Structure formats: structure tokens, C-alpha cells
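for the recovery benchmark. C-alpha cells below, seq after
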């Protein structure tokens, strides 16, 4: 089965430099390599891979690159794999890919294809974690930064902790309510990246999206909230509500959201849906 590596040379802090030599050294499958030159090109290249009957597309970049590739691969036979080279790499780490680039490339020789869910926001696909509120605010600011990487992302978060909660009205099967929330995350997978888990129990094969509502909380609790996210215990917090649903609608004055870490603006309402068993994933066999 042939693999096509689609490499975003601008992602993260440059871990993908000279990656072609590592691919040549370790990969046992037939393969070729293409590089993106601009935003959105990974989707075009992935569509071409589908048309050519390529078995597996490997996104070499961050969650934004993964999202671009996935858009073309959802509801197609071509599988998606990931080499984590972005600032966060939440989807890759959720799947069980290794943080070390050489080791993650070697993992590809024993990966298996599984079929997972994806999600949509107003019919636009996402595969990992999307949301509205503080995380979208950070995604928008980070997209304007010249310097990438986790450290710069963390500095931005700490700088913006003065962000104020917003009011949202949510409707879903079984209920509706108005909440004042710091953020509402739409979690198909478990984490933003770097093991910052916003929904530690999220399952990409359960036919449900975890809607994580981070309710208003005293500012002095910020260190505890961040600690619980990093330790994978945020779902146990009294300031967190998680609604598992196939579909949910959000009414709000906020227009800014993020899809897999990339900022977008949409008019209210937002309609978020699960798309069950829609994406073939090339992933480590030990990750269930």
C-alpha cells in the first residue's frame, strides 16, 4: 500500500526539517513526498491522493495540517496518518503517536487502519477538538504570531488569562440551557495538544461529541484548572460540565470559533454534529 507524505514546512518549530532523510531511512512501504506552499494546499494534495488511489496520506505538521488533509479524506477509502510536527499535536498524541519524530516515523511500519468519527460545525469538518470562547480567542491570536511552538503558545495563554466568560444558550437532545462559560469545547478526541486534556475520556469511536463547558470560576483557581488539564483530571472539576451528544446547537453573540486549533468566524447559531465512522485512520495498533 502506497503512502503519500504531505509535509507542511511552516508548522510548529521546524521539527520536520530534513524529515525526508528520516523517512527514507525508516519507512518500509512504497511512498512519495509532497510539500505544501500555502494554507489550504494540504486539502488539494489529499484530494489528488484520493483520485490517484493512494492508500494512506500522512499529514506531517500540526492539527491544522491534519484538519486540511482530513477534509479531503472523510467518506473516502484513503486513510489518514500523522507525524506530529506542530505546536500542539493533540490529534497525533490522542492516537498514540510518539513525540519523537524518528520514533513516530518508525511506528508507521506497524500501524493499522481503523475507522473513527469526525465532527462538523455548520457543515465544516473537524477531527480533534474545536470550540468557542477562550480557546478560540487564543487560536485567533496565535495565528497572527510569527513565532510558533509550544512555549510561545503557553506564553500567550498566560498573557490572556484576563479573558472574561461569555453567555451561551445551548440546545441538545434532552434539554437546553443558558450558561456563562469560559469556553465550550467540542471534543471528538481528548486533547488540545502537549497532553493538555480538555476531555480525557473522549472516544473517537463512540458516535458522540463531548461538549465540555468550562463554567465561570474565581481567577485564583486558574493554576488549579491548568494543573488538572495537564494531569488529565479536568473532567472531575466542579467547574466542568460535559454533555455527550450527537448534535448540539449554540446561540451566542460570539462569532469567533476554532476548528482543530485554526480560527474561523461564523454567525450564530452554531450547529455541531457527529459524523460516525467517517474517517479511516492509520494509527498504532496498541491505541484503542
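predicted aa per position
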Amino acid at each position: 500500500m502506497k503512502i503519500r507524505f504531505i509535509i507542511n514546512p511552516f508548522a510548529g518549530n521546524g521539527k520536520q526539517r530534513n524529515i525526508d532523510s528520516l523517512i527514507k531511512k525508516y519507512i518500509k512501504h512504497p511512498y512519495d513526498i509532497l510539500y505544501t506552499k500555502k494554507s489550504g494546499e494540504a486539502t488539494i494534495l489529499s484530494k489528488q491522493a484520493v483520485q490517484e488511489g493512494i492508500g494512506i496520506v500522512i499529514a506531517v505538521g500540526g492539527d491544522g495540517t491534519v484538519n486540511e488533509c482530513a477534509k479531503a479524506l472523510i467518506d473516502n477509502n484513503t486513510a489518514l496518518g500523522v507525524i506530529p510536527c506542530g505546536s500542539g499535536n493533540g490529534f497525533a498524541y490522542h492516537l498514540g503517536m510518539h513525540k519523537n519524530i524518528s520514533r513516530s516515523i518508525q511506528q508507521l511500519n506497524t500501524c493499522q487502519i481503523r475507522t473513527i468519527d469526525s465532527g462538523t460545525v455548520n457543515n465544516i469538518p473537524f477531527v480533534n477538538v474545536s470550540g468557542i470562547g477562550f480557546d478560540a480567542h487564543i487560536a485567533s491570536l496565535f495565528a497572527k504570531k510569527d513565532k510558533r511552538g509550544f512555549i510561545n503558545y503557553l506564553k500567550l495563554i498566560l498573557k490572556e488569562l484576563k479573558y472574561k466568560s461569555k453567555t451561551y444558550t445551548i440546545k441538545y437532545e434532552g434539554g437546553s440551557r443558558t450558561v456563562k462559560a469560559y469556553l465550550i469545547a467540542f471534543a471528538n478526541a481528548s486533547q488540545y495538544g502537549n497532553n493538555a486534556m480538555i476531555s480525557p475520556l473522549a472516544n473517537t469511536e463512540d458516535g458522540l461529541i463531548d461538549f465540555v463547558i468550562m463554567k465561570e470560576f474565581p481567577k485564583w483557581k486558574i493554576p488549579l484548572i491548568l494543573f488538572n488539564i495537564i494531569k488529565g483530571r479536568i473532567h472531575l472539576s466542579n467547574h466542568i460540565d460535559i454533555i455527550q451528544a450527537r448534535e448540539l446547537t449554540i446561540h451566542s453573540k460570539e462569532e469567533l470559533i476554532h476548528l482543530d486549533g485554526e480560527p474561523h468566524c461564523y454567525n450564530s447559531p452554531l450547529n455541531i454534529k457527529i459524523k460516525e465512522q467517517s474517517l479511516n485512520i492509520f494509527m498504532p495498533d496498541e491505541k484503542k
